[in-house]
Design brief:
CATH class of the largest domain: Alpha Beta
CATH superfamily of the largest domain: HUPs
Number of helices: 20
Number of domains: 3
Strand order of the largest sheet: 1-6-5-2-3-4
CATH topology of the largest domain: Rossmann fold
Number of strands: 15
Oligomer: single chain
Strand content: 5-15%
Helix content: 40-55%
Amino acid sequence: MTYKPKSEFLTVMVERGFLQDCTDLEGLDTRLLKGPLRAYIGFDATATSLHIGSLIQIMMLRWLQKTGNAPVVLMGGGTSKVGDPSGKDESRQLISTETIDANITGIRKVFDKYIDFGNGDTDAIMVNNSDWLDKLNYVDFLRDYGKHFTINRMIAMESVKLRLDREQPLTFLEFNYMLLQAYDFMELNKIYNVGLQMGGSDQWGNIVNGIDLTRRISQNQVFGITTPLLTKADGSKMGKSASGAIWLNEDKLSSYDFWQFWRNTLDADVGKFLALFTEMPMEECNRLGALEGAEINQAKITLANAVTALCHGNDAAIAAEATAREVFEKGGVGDDLPTLELSATDIGDGISFTQLLVRSGLVSSGKDAKRAIAGGGARLNDVMVNDAGMMLTTKDIAATPKISSSKKRHALVKLV
């Protein structure tokens, strides 16, 4: 990158590794220097929580506000009824309006931890695109806006091209998604004076479409920036672990398991993750990321504490670290371990150890549970379990046993 930004926000984005592409870097920099800018990121409401695959976008909104600008969280109440084909090999399952509304309520809890909402110049707002998309007249929409999109350009979009190249079906419903997202940017610019859309690199085409439509219809200059595709050093995708998605809400994933995910970061990722997911000065991020041997493990604890404190609070981070030390260094149980609560009815005449591993979330399936047992990683109260069919009774569960799927994955089972 030859141009060096002067605005605080873009300086942070570049220095900390958030910026992949920008439609007009110098123009956006000039606009940011003039005063607070409203910028948005869209999130489809497909679950009651976001997972860490969205955390880089959330941190962008946090930095946007910290540098004197106004974040806009766009909930896809309308577009969630369609489904974004980007990065997908098959069609999303359609979900009901009631489910979408419940999901938005859950997702709002995530943002309340990272940004401040209100009515001030730099306060965040949350809006729902169903407010305008649900009112669209289809024929009018096609006549007024469809003429600005060519099929040639639409099928060249990466999200469409990928599906077609693999000869996998792409519904007409999904094909319309890019028109709706472009319309979102135009509406946000008109209603809320939003001048910037941010998103992952897979959203570049959709962002450019929105900028072009806004220019054609409103004659307003707006901007777009994207973040790089984020993968771990081993090439695996951010946001998931062997046992499932790393959710940001406590009711979907315990703060202890969240902390453990970051504690288990690969050595090569420590510096990068500190820069992206914490607010530590870059000098400290670089110093910690360059450590080796036993010292890098302490850097991972620093990372886990900082990310967990932002998401779940400082007390949760302290408790998670204390539990980890109790479990791993002292061989204890650890009061803050995730807990599976079962009633006598749940247990009945007995419940298999395999079921306990699955129901506790330590593994994602019975097949994974049997694999953990066969590999020697599964344990009951730190004693290796070799029998996948081993049954536990109500009396066994009343003793609040500790179950493990590996050296780093533990939970308690409690009778209630």
